[in-house]
């Protein structure tokens, strides 16, 4: 597999756009190549198969939505953090839609749910000042509320 991080990021960003626009069925390595404007076969040099591409898309969506570390200093206010998340999701609309498509992929293909990257996507909770961790019902509900209202 190729190791050019800039090219890999560009291919993943192109994959996010394809996934958001065409849905899971439209996501192919050739479609990613076309979206990225690179020669056919380039994506297959970076991703062994579609499943690996899906896993790496999930990681890239998280990278693009993660808060700026400067926003996480000092006392953290859940309302402010969720508001900032909604702002990032509005700016990064394709990323948000791609995340929803990943979740749907896991739902539509129950046999692959355990290996689906979306099935491992955590919700987040505050465990101590300045620290957030997965699987808290409170912030999970808040996340669901924010994501469902983000485009309304």
From TrEMBL:
InterPro entries: Homeodomain-like_sf, HTH-type_TetR-like_transc_reg, HTH_TetR
Bilayer-spanning residue ranges: none
Keyword hit for DNA-binding: yes
Disordered as annotated region, ranges: 107-139
Superkingdom of this protein's organism: Bacteria
Limits of the HTH tetR-type domain: 5-65
Amino acid composition bias (Low complexity), ranges on this chain: 113-129
Keywords for this protein: DNA-binding
Chain residues forming the annotated DNA-binding region: 28-47
Name of this chain's protein: TetR family transcriptional regulator
Source species: Streptomyces caledonius
